[in-house]
Amino acid sequence: MADLSTVLVTGAGGRTGQIVYKKLKERSDQFVARGLVRTPESKEKIGGADDVFVGDIRDSSTLVPALQGVDYLIILTSAVPRMKPGFDPTKGGRPEFYFEEGAYPEQVDWIGQKNQIDAAKEAGVKQIVLVGSMGGTNLNHPLNSLGNGNILVWKRKAEQYLADSGVPYTIIRAGGLQDRDGGIRELLVGKDDELLQTETRTIARPDVAEVCIQALKYEESKFKAFDLASKPEGVGTPTKDFKALFSQITTRF
Ligand SMILES: NC(=O)c1ccc[n+]([C@@H]2O[C@H](COP(=O)([O-])OP(=O)(O)OC[C@H]3O[C@@H](n4cnc5c(N)ncnc54)[C@H](OP(=O)(O)O)[C@@H]3O)[C@@H](O)[C@H]2O)c1
């Protein structure tokens, strides 16, 4: 039997994280899946198996058991903005958002990701895949003013920390995430937010999940950072050759 790789996905109760966890479980001939979630409720939500660890990325000590014996880490944790109550879409205007105390992007997207990178390095993890967001080259991006969180700034800082860590890495800066079927669109990789200036700047969550897993299989994905989006369904050819996709990327950051 081929050697199985043990993969931990954090944020495994999140919208993309749970797709990664499920895909890994379905590929038990290649991977031993593990998940990290923040609460017992999230653990139940994704099936409650023993391979789901409960921990908080802001507390390094809770990451150690989950990372023991892990070959690959996929980071899908993120600060989650909450909508302020009282917004009435019928009255027009825009909803307002906030972050819970202690769960600002600085604590989650910076300190939390840094804690994971440090703990993974300590545990001898062979590669770290980090999902971030497009838009990070623009300090004035509207997402930064959301809840006064500067979320893209803190995400970018964590990406830089990973790129400097010495651990082989793949940084995926996704475009606008959509809850649609995956595997049916041509994927596009880019750099420096150039895709944001085009009409093709969204991607289905299952496609992001697939790229995270495929990144573990090809050397061409390592020491790379890239933007990720897709063509609309029916335009172009659905991406099947991930080695070729990763080979197109020339940017280390
Ligand atoms: N939304 C977009 O259009 C968009 C575009 C580009 C990139 N992205 C990025 O893509 C990534 C995936 O997005 P998504 O929408 O799939 O994610 P999501 O559903 O918001 O999931 C984020 C996960 O992080 C977990 N988390 C937060 N704080 C934590 C902590 N302290 N300890 C442990 N876990 C914690 C959350 O757990 P709980 O469920 O317990 O809160 C949640 O499951 C994120 O980095 C996101 O910023 C999003």
Would you write up a description of this structure?
This protein has 253 residues and is an alpha/beta fold. The protein has a single domain, classed as Rossmann fold, CATH 3.40.50. The chain contains 8 helices and 12 strands. The strands form 3 sheets. Strands 3-2-1-4-7-8-12-10 form an 8-stranded mixed β-sheet, with helices on both faces. A two-stranded antiparallel ribbon has the order 5-6. The protein is globular, with a radius of gyration of 18 Å. Bound molecules: NADP nicotinamide-adenine-dinucleotide phosphate. The site of NADP nicotinamide-adenine-dinucleotide phosphate has 24 residues, from α4, β7 and β9. NADP nicotinamide-adenine-dinucleotide phosphate binds next to α4, β7 and β9. This is NAD(P)-binding domain-containing protein. It holds the Pfam family NAD_binding_10. One of its GO terms (molecular function) is oxidoreductase activity.
The largest sheet is: 8 strands, mixed
Which CATH architecture would you pick? Answer: 3-Layer(aba) Sandwich
Our Rg estimate from Cα atoms comes to: 18 Å
User: What is the CATH H-level superfamily?
Assistant: NAD(P)-binding Rossmann-like Domain
Query: Under the CATH scheme, which class?
Result: Alpha Beta
Q: Which ligands appear in the coordinates? A: NADP nicotinamide-adenine-dinucleotide phosphate
- The level of helicity is 25-40%
List keywords for this structure.
8 helices; 253 residues; 8-stranded mixed sheet; globular; Rossmann fold; 21% strand; alpha/beta; binds NADP nicotinamide-adenine-dinucleotide phosphate; two-stranded antiparallel sheet; single chain
